[in-house]
Write a structure and sequence with these properties.
Elements: E1 5-10, H1 16-25, E2 29-34, H2 39-45, E3 49-52, E4 78-81, H3 83-91, E5 95-111, E6 124-137, E7 143-147, E8 155-158, E9 163-166, H4 178-189, H5 198-213, E10 218-222, H6 226-239, E11 243-249, H7 257-266, E12 271-276, H8 278-284, H9 291-313, E13 318-320, E14 356-358, H10 366-375, H11 380-383, H12 403-422, E15 431-445, E16 448-461, E17 469-470, H13 475-488, E18 492-497
Parallel strand pairs: 1-2, 1-3, 3-4, 4-9, 10-11, 10-13, 11-12, 13-14, 16-18
Antiparallel strand pairs: 5-6, 5-7, 7-8, 8-9, 15-16, 16-17
Helix pairs in contact: 5-6, 5-10, 6-10, 12-13
The protein binds xanthosine-5'-monophosphate.
Length: about 500
Amino acid sequence: MDNELVIVLDFGGQYNQLIARRVRETGVYCEVRSYKTPIDEIKRLAPKGIIFTGGPNSVYDESSPHIGEEIFGLNIPILGICYGAQLMAYTLGGKVETCKVSEYGKTDTVYDTSGKLFANVPEKAVSWMSHTDYVSKVPKGFKITAHTENCPAAAFECVSKRLYAVQFHPEVYHTMFGMSMLDSFVKKICKCHGSWNMKNYAATAIEQIRQKVGSGKVLLALSGGVDSSVACALLSKAVGDQLTCVFVDHGFMRKNEGDEVEAAFRDWDVNFIRVDASERFLSKLVGVSDPETKRKTIGEEFIRVFEDEAKKIGKVDFLVQGTIYPDVIESGTGDAAVIKSHHNVGGLPDYVDFKEIIEPLRLLFKDEVRKLGTELGLADYLVWRQPFPGPGLAIRIIGEITREKLEILRDADLIFREEIAKAQLDRVVNQYFAVLTDIRSVGVMGDGRTYDYTLALRGVTTTDFMTADFARIPYDVLESTSIRIINEVKHINRVCYDVTSKPPATIEWE
Ligand code: XMP
């Protein structure tokens, strides 16, 4: 087992987890900790390297986060980034001042390639800056290893003390050769071997969960989405049948989806409960066509069903949530993170009697979660499942929901998914689905008049789902989808493609 660890000390920067993730990409395990972590705890962790993050403050602000000088004497290599670089300079006797010209964004940077971080970097390249203070004088014993037009000490180092600093952000994509710099820090300076991978992560996480849970009972609300499925697989390996998964099937899943989720977990060593609650949900939604009322009704009913099941199981010690890093709302300085209610299940009941929440994925980004799922042996169709909203097809049927409309939408949506897969676009278009509109229009089929529903197809490309562009799906794929839908699905006589980005539209229609 590879015990190499690099820690990122969080000074409130917006890229703290991204830094950790980039270090993990070099094959070394990395975690973010608060800058307030006691020095004894750091000694106990014995990291091979420490990285100070950026932060919004100036080192001269009274309330700005500081760190005792002792950390610089541990003989553990430290890399300060942005605020972290200024803090290192300030703490060790250098000088920090406000820039005459703030640097923000892509900045031409000149590197001294004899600098330890820059062995594989050309003499000139673009770095990504975001600062209003700068280091005007480096501490005694430090050498400047990079500069820009407005920043005389864009990087500096003291090799004998194993201290390194960069004013720019090597972790962001726009810094050319940034990965190479981080790799040099981790491998050449911290002397890590870089043999960590998702297999080790799984092994460590499983061990930690076992220690925490002991012989306790664990409950997990499984939505069938990637995150809760991976969390389920991990917990199952860790605590086997001490785990109960409750999969509330609200009846708004896509075609065959409920059965697929059940099949995926049937052979795992977990207590799997599938609650067919479709009647309950549908009856609550009779006459409801307002989108927000639909969402609230479904969220509320979900909680009620979950509560009923939890009561049957009895006292539960731990509740598992599939929260992943982008879901985590952090205070920014590593103080206790606010735990977000699971957005897939619309918030869980307060009253459920459990001691603690386990969030085994909260350090990971989506693609890391997918890697972990594959490592744990989850089927590809679960691991690569596109995001699916908690309320499911209910918010893809405009207007009132009926069983008939659900059937129509399920069949049409399946055809769209099949055609996208056939064209090998399923990992190119990030989310794609069909929406059954409330519009009916006149058509002609055979020699007869039809008066049937209009179906909308939606496909988007996005990285974070906060903004999105409509996907440029080739016309022939749209054509084959449209022909099949009209021929194979009753009550649809017109198919449209949504060519709106987000904003101004949203990805879902409701
Ligand atoms: P919008 O429609 O807001 O969607 O642009 C952004 C992303 O979030 C998904 N979505 C949800 N996911 N519960 C979820 O877990 C929800 O209630 C929900 N509503 C929207 C949507 O599918 C898209 O990926």
